[in-house]
Structure formats: structure tokens, C-alpha cells
Design brief:
Order of helices and strands: HHEHEHHH
Strand order of the largest sheet: 1-2
Distance between the termini: 8 Å
Strand content: 5-15%
Number of helices: 6
Structural class: mainly alpha
Length: 192
């Protein structure tokens, strides 16, 4: 097994995946129309600061799970609010963001790990076709898309436009990644 080549493939593939993420999120208009602004951001920030004591995931209406179940009248009221709105599923950060360099460092390490997994998938395939390798990586993207993104659309009301744009973003990113990795491991260089 050519470990050096695997590591190099993961690093180059991760960098390509990282660059694609930057392009798709910053330069292309993909995500621009999938987000909305509050009508009064200062007021919403005040309400969040006053009611979200810690950073984390918040769900409204809150329906306690486990031992402390609400009485039937409260449960009916919560269910009505859940079904008719307003509904909120949000990641809230009340602390300072931290440093952008650290966020980018975590992202590039994550992308290199993704590229490593795609590299290992591609070298384990018994196919000599670039098309089949790219389809395998796209299959991984679709598995992630349906197991995570579509579930968020279904259960947490993520918009259809955001869901579709995220799926397209993932397909293009994984296709580029598979193409780069496949250039490192040509069929005649396939490991046994």
C-alpha cells in the first residue's frame, strides 16, 4: 500500500474540496436566496440574548422528552404550536465566534479527512472507469444528502431551495473530489 500517495491524495483532494466549498458559499449565488433576514435583527438578537442562556441547539416549541411529560392540556397546546407555528430549530451562539483562522483550520482538516475516506473508497473499487469512481463518490454524497439534509428539510422545515442547493453543492464537491483522487490512482496503479 502506497501510504505516501494516499496521504498526498487526501491532502490535495481536501484542498480542492475546501476551495469548492469557498466558491459555492462565497462566489456563486447558490446560497444567497436560501437565507432570509429578520425584519428587526436587533430586536431578535435581544430576545435571543434574554432567552438563550447558553450556546447550543434550540427548538421551539420545546416539548420535554423523558420523565417530565407535560399534562395533556399543555401537550395539546404544544402540539398545536408545533403544527401551526411559529416553529424554530436554530443553532445559537451566545459567545464570541473566535478566530476565523481556527474555523478555516478545522474546515480544511475536516475536508482532508473526507478526501481520505473518498481516497480509500476509490482505491478499494474494482473498476477502471473514471465514471464509475465519480459515480461512487456521488453515491456517498447522495447517502449523506438523504440521511441528513432531506431529514432536516422534512422534520425541521429547512427550505426546499436550501435543501436542493445543498444537494447540488454536495454532488459537485464530491464529483470534483473523486476526479482529483482518481487522477492519483489510475487503474493500472490500483493497489491490491
Amino acid at each position: 500500500m502506497n501510504t505516501k500517495k494516499i496521504v498526498y491524495s487526501a491532502i490535495v483532494g481536501g484542498v480542492v474540496f475546501f476551495i469548492w466549498g469557498g466558491i459555492s458559499h462565497s462566489l456563486l449565488p447558490f446560497y444567497n436566496n436560501t437565507f432570509h433576514a429578520f425584519t428587526n435583527e436587533d430586536e431578535v438578537a435581544h430576545v435571543i440574548s434574554a432567552n438563550a442562556p447558553a450556546s447550543g441547539i434550540y427548538f421551539m416549541p420545546w416539548m420535554p422528552m423523558g420523565e417530565s411529560q407535560p399534562d395533556s392540556a399543555t401537550a395539546a397546546k404544544l402540539m398545536d404550536r408545533l403544527m401551526n407555528g411559529p416553529f424554530l430549530f436554530a443553532a445559537i451562539r451566545v459567545n464570541p465566534l473566535g478566530s476565523y483562522p481556527m474555523l478555516f483550520a478545522v474546515e480544511i482538516v475536516n475536508d482532508i479527512l473526507i478526501a481520505l475516506l473518498v481516497t480509500l473508497l476509490i482505491i478499494s473499487l474494482k473498476t477502471s472507469s473514471f465514471r464509475d469512481r465519480i459515480l461512487a463518490a456521488e453515491g456517498v454524497a447522495l447517502i449523506v444528502f438523504f440521511t441528513r439534509v432531506v431529514r432536516d428539510w422534512n422534520w425541521y422545515s429547512f427550505s426546499t431551495s436550501y435543501t436542493l442547493v445543498t444537494g447540488l453543492d454536495m454532488l459537485v464537491g464530491f464529483s470534483l473530489l473523486a476526479f482529483v483522487v482518481s487522477r492519483f490512482f489510475r487503474p493500472q496503479q490500483q493497489m491490491t
